[in-house]
Amino acid sequence: MSRRTFLNTTGGLAAASLIGLRAGKVLAGAQASDPMALGVVDLVKAIRGKEVSCREVMQACLDRIDAENPTYNAIVSRQDPEKLLEQADRADAAIAAGQATGALHGIPQAPKDLTAVAGIATTQGSPIFKDFVPKSDSIMAERMRREGAIFVGRSNTPEFGLGSHSYNTVFGTTRNAWDPALSAGGSSGGAAVALARHMLPVADGSDMMGSLRNPAGWNNVVGFRPTQGLVPYGPAAEVFVQQLGIEGPMGRTVADTAWLLSVQAGHDPRAPLSREVDPLQFRQDLSRDFKGARIGYLGDLNGYLPTEPGVMDLCASALGHFTDLGCHVEEARLDFDMDVAWQTWLTLRGFSIAGVAGKLYQDDKTRALLKPEAVWEIENGLKLSGAQVFAASANRSALYQAMLALFARYDVLILPTAQIFPFDAEQPWPKEIAGRQMDTYHRWMEVVIPATLAGLPVAAVPAGFGPKGASQPMGLQIIGPARADLQVLQLAHAYEKASGFPQHSPLQA
């Protein structure tokens, strides 16, 4: 399959055949008494088909959070249950009146506690903002609300989203959906755990250094980092330069993830670098034949990355599902100095964080409330010269060209979502991997930076479990060329069917 074929073929049903318009009942058996067992695609269909009311869905959501959240701490800033049920009643009344329903009509959601939500605390996991309540929504929250979502609270995150372990001094630690003694990953850890434990049917998140990818892999769900510009970020004080962090969707299935992406995607004039696209493309049937597709496996980047024993074996084994689909899988090599990539990352990340949070550092009172990792990032950023930032941007551009050269040979690239399995939740961050000391709080997540720096679409899908079983979930990054978001989701969907990973739930473990 040529790269042109990969980019242009949509396969499956025509775009007009949208998920959610299929005939047939979706609530049956045990699911009839627990609508939260459904993902968003089937839940929307059940609500529209009047198989379940929005009130019943909301009550089931609240019951599930009551049962699960004391252990896992995924949902924070919870809203008043009675007011949420009143909103659900209004959603039911709209259906009874024959009014048009949005893509998330009556669906409980808990936006990540980094994105602004009007009327609900946006703490960013920081004691500095523990009482901050925005007056307006972010673009993403605005779109979710417009499509009928009901916000039950927020999903937990590390302070300012820094680090791939979701703990903070405001709400505490979010714990892994498969083993509460372990880390959930981050920074979208609360979202991933809420999905896996059925507290939410779909969830939003954001990703700078694997924050949609690592928690997806560690909780056996799906995360999707879109192509840079597909999902507008803002409103923000700076809308042209800060492009490392991207918002995106998570789900228990690829179709659920794509459904939320259809709400998030598309141009907004407040984000001038956002793209004009038809978001409904992400609601079409994702089925497609991938026989002959060419897959390059980057593994541990030719020995550059230290990895915990078992990670590489597991990921290599998971590649067999692509072979079952008829894909050609082979080892690939990225022709770029990864030490240069790491230094580029440190420069651009420090520059970005200092730009956003530098004022907090300059004030003695707020600086005292910053966690050490945030102080370290800001201080690194404040030391940079303009020439250093420009040189890093040039190196980033060179890395993109190196990735582009690989896409001349391969349709997609594969990497693990993390270099280690979930670690002890009481540990701030891993200090070593396979005997190699980690010199920063995020060096252990270096595997995610090639796709971030190149601005490429990435689907994070479960790879399975390590030698110790359910306490060692791991994922794969499926990385596509820029703007091949739909095609990456289609391949992730095919992989999902071949691997059967949605059948594995921590609620049944």
TrEMBL record:
Keywords: Hydrolase. Its EC number is 3.5.1.4. It comes from Paracoccus litorisediminis. One of its GO terms (molecular function) is amidase activity. This is Amidase. Pfam families: Amidase (PF01425). InterPro entries: Amidase, Amidase_dom, AS_sf, TAT_signal. It comes from the Bacteria. Residues 56-489 form the Amidase domain. NCBIfam families: PRK07486.1.
